[in-house]
Amino acid sequence: xxxxxxxxxxxxxxxxxxxxxxxxxxxxxxxxxxxxxxxxxxxxxxxxxxxxxxxxxxxxxxxxxxxxxxxxxxxxxxxxxxxxxxxxxxxxxxxxxxxxxxxxxxxxxxxxxxxxxxxxxxxxxxxxxxxxxxxxxxxxxxxxxxxxxxxxxxxxxxxxxxxxxxxxxxxxxxxxxxxxxxxxxxxxxxxxxxxxxxxxxxxxxxxxxxxxxxxxxxxxxxxxxx
Length: 226
Ligand SMILES: [Zn+2]
What we know:
CATH architecture: 3-Layer(aba) Sandwich
Structural class: alpha/beta
Strand content: 15-25%
Strand order of the largest sheet: 1-10-5-9-6-7-3
Pfam family, one: Amidase_2
Catalytic activity: Hydrolyzes the link between N-acetylmuramoyl residues and L-amino acid residues in certain cell-wall glycopeptides
Protein name: N-acetylmuramoyl-L-alanine amidase
Number of domains: 1
Radius of gyration: 16 Å
Bound molecules: zinc ion
Largest sheet: 7 strands, mixed
Shape: globular
Order of helices and strands: EEEHEEHEEEHEHEHHEH
EC number: 3.5.1.28
Mean pLDDT: 88
Number of helices: 7
CATH class: Alpha Beta
Organism: Flagellimonas algicola
Helix content: 10-25%
Distance between the termini: 39 Å
CATH topology: Lysozyme-like
């Protein structure tokens, strides 16, 4: 399957609970936010319309976070590779969902995605999977974690609809998450996989929905905070 065709829509669905994901702040990442994020121009809950799936084209979580340190980009979550100790355990939270991360060029757009609107970073969330994209299969766990993050977002953001590859949005410059990413399996995990294996917690209140300053990430116990 061509990564430029990786795209599906999340049907409108009412959730009683918001899904919890095993996320931990990447140590020290908070100090990079000022240099590689932007305040969202849309409401950080109601204005979220999509999720963009990326792969790092690198070999480590540290290498991916160095992009944030160097002001070259940013993303909301990072899914560790097989040879990292966190693999199979936790995913890294790297930017608060309330902030726009810099994971897609602001000028790009696609007519199939959020009615052809640009400024994708402002209405989307970005997931990075650590993967070299060169003869490097994604692990089943990595794919499941990507699906679980999407389910979490689906349960939390009432207007979210598009799940799309970076390659579809910016085909002249990007091919991620690459030909090795099992998009069909991933899509089935999201749409048909159910929510039973995920820990749910109470749905956020209306009050939180209307507060643009809300810190959206829920952080699990034992977190190493920055
Ligand atoms: Zn990308």
